[in-house]
Amino acid sequence: MRACIECPMVWRGEIKCPACGYPGEPIEGREWIAEVPGPPIGKGRPRASTRGGHVRLYTPSRTAAWEGRASVVLRDDWEARAAKQGPLEGDVEIHVLALFPRPKRMIWKRKPMPRERYLGKPDASNVLKAVEDALEKAGVYRDDKQIWKATIVCLYCAGDESPLVRLRLRW
Q1: What global pTM score does this model have?
Q2: Strand pairing partners for 141?
Q3: Are the beta carbons of 140 and 63 closer than 8 angstroms?
Q4: pLDDT tens digits along 126-148
Q5: What is the 3-state secondary structure (H, E, C) of the chain?
Q6: Do residues 167 and 34 touch, judged by C-beta distance below 8 A?
């Protein structure tokens, strides 16, 4: 696979872009795949408290704990892959697969248990926000405003899978 340096075209085979004719770069060096084990957690709403007449905003403890654990896993994997690179500069594309644990009503002993759509809470946008914040804390990119394209798929695990968040970044 090759990606054009001028337009968003991606293709296989020849060196020049079929759309604009500019040279392409191999895409393999510009992609990173990582996994965070455990069930996905959505970004919680900020909480507020007052102390001494001043309002203090904070992230809920459950969200902060998941983001902290995920950022450690992602930082270790990112440093192993790109120790000399540092945080990404420029545009970033992110694809997220969130696998949630199956509820008891969907567990069968004799029937196959394929992946199925997840439509519960937390919703997909809040899971994506938590993943973006964990990536930023891990030092993969400087700010989540660098993301120009984001896709997320939320599913229940198949019968033989464990809950996890799998993500793929392209730049």
Answers
A1: 0.79
A2: 88
A3: no
A4: 999 999 999 999 999 999 999 99
A5: CEEECCCCCEECCCCECCCCCCEEEECHHHEEEEEEECCCCCCCCCEEEEECCEEEEECCHHHHHHHHHHHHHHHHHHHHHCCCCCCECCCEEEEEEEEECCCHHHCCCCCCCCCEECCCCCCHHHHHHHHHHHHHHHCCECCHHHEEEEEEEEEECCCCCCCEEEEEEEC
A6: yes
